[in-house]
Specification:
Elements (H helix, E strand, L loop, with lengths): L11 H24 L23 E5 L3 E8 L8 E2 L3 E8 L1 E7 L5 E7 L4 E7 L2 E4 L7 E2 L1 E6 L5 E8 L20 E7 L2 H13 L8 E6 L15 E7 L1 H6 L7 E6 L2 E4 L11 E9 L5 H10 L9 E6 L15 E7 L2 H9 L1 H10 L3 E10 L6
Antiparallel strand pairs: 1-2, 2-11, 3-10, 4-7, 4-11, 5-6, 5-10, 7-8, 8-9, 12-14, 12-15, 13-14, 16-18, 17-19, 17-20, 18-19
Length: about 375
């Protein structure tokens, strides 16, 4: 499976040599996983949900109940955005180089190390840190970015090992975030497409009407209409891992953002006759952005702007096959307002304007889409 992704661009003898290294890499990583005792992996992980994108490679090759296999390719001089390791992992180097590791919180350099071809390494998560099982590399944050600072391209095969299904979810076992219910924001350029998505969601067994959180055409504030990027209709709804696999997102005019919502402020239940607004913001940060600080700044607005009645956020974690539907966006934020007027007041609030001035220079791309909260009795 892993080696099938090796592009045969070299002479046949070299291709055979490269593929042989690939098969050996897969074997080496599996051996490292066994040495870690990961037949049933235990992880001391206080994070119930990922705070940064859990996509720890550049291409997800496979995922099942026990593991996730990633291909990781980093060209010379390329820096990858910060990600979060939720599970123990091992990797084997196919093409070696020197790597620099950066903090996900403030983008500062943490350390650099050599990763030569043929090297295998394994790490366990303890608290918010990753620990090298050999002790060769000091513990480092589970949230970090990586840059190839060497003279050649870098490539590795990385295997994450999930806690087994039967492992008790106690203080020492990782909470399987992939078993939690997630939010899906779906944006379309035509009304029929969002209507079809709505009908599909309602037809899936186990998806109740109350799971449809927001559903309408765009109600963006006039100052943010261009930030809708041509999308006209949207839906925000809740799915579990089973119902997510039953949904289809094949329409060319559709964008999909799946994330596990970190609840900051509970909006509660709307009063009768109230038409609440779901203000959705999706961001792709620049490589050198102090992501942790920027996210904390957004969360901090909930204590400064009274109109923000609810707030949740999470890193985008689209399923295998839907990655391109996210168009490179990394984070989703959803704010609940009691009315369109409250949303307008938020946009005009000085604290909001100050935050916008702080975050925009670090935003590679920004999409804003407001929809009306859905009445589950409809």
């Amino acid at each position: 499976l892993v080696c099938a992704h090796q592009a045969p661009t070299q002479a046949s003898r070299k291709v055979m040599s490269r593929n042989t290294r690939c098969y050996l890499a897969a074997a080496a990583v599996m051996v490292a996983s066994v040495e870690m005792g990961n037949q049933c992996a235990f992880v001391e992980n206080p994070s119930r949900l990922p705070q940064f994108p859990p996509n720890v490679g550049t291409l997800k090759l496979h995922e099942d109940e026990a593991s996730i296999i990633w291909d990781m390719v980093i060209p010379v001089g390329t820096r990858l955005p910060p990600h979060e390791h939720m599970f123990d992992y091992s990797f084997h180097v196919l093409e070696g180089s020197r790597l620099a590791v950066y903090s996900g919180e403030d983008a500062n350099h943490l350390f650099s190390f050599d990763a030569p071809m043929g090297k295998t390494m394994a790490f366990k998560r303890h608290g918010n840190m990753m620990v090298d099982i050999t002790g060769a590399i000091p513990p480092f944050p589970a949230v970090h970015g990586v840059m190839n600072i060497g003279k050649g391209n870098y490539r590795e095969i990385l295997v994450e090992t999930k806690p087994c299904k039967g492992v008790p979810q106690n203080e020492t076992a990782a909470l399987r975030y992939d078993k939690e219910r997630l939010r899906r924001a779906l944006l379309t350029q035509t009304e029929p497409t969002v209507v079809a998505a709505y009908d599909e969601a309602r037809s899936i067994e186990g998806v109740r009407a109350s799971a449809i959180i927001g559903y309408s055409k765009s109600v963006n504030h006039e100052s943010e209409r261009a930030l809708a990027q041509g999308f006209s209709h949207g839906m925000l709804y809740t799915l579990d891992e089973v119902s997510r696999e039953l949904t289809t997102t094949s329409s060319a005019d559709t964008m999909v953002f799946d994330f596990y919502p970190v609840a900051v402020k509970d909006p509660g239940v709307a009063e009768e006759g109230m038409q609440r607004v779901k203000h959705m913001v999706f961001v792709q940060f620049k490589i050198d952005a102090p992501v942790g600080k920027l996210v904390a700044g957004y969360i901090g607005l909930t204590t400064k702007i009274s109109e923000m009645k609810g707030f949740e956020w999470g890193p985008i974690a689209n399923k295998l096959g839907d990655e391109e539907k996210g168009k490179g966006f990394q984070y989703g934020f959803v704010t609940t307002f009691n009315s369109v007027e409250d949303c307008t007041a938020y946009n005009e609030h000085d604290a909001h304007k100050e935050y916008v001035n702080e975050v925009v220079p670090y935003a590679e791309d920004l999409l804003v889409f407001d929809i009306l909260e859905h009445n589950s009795s409809e």
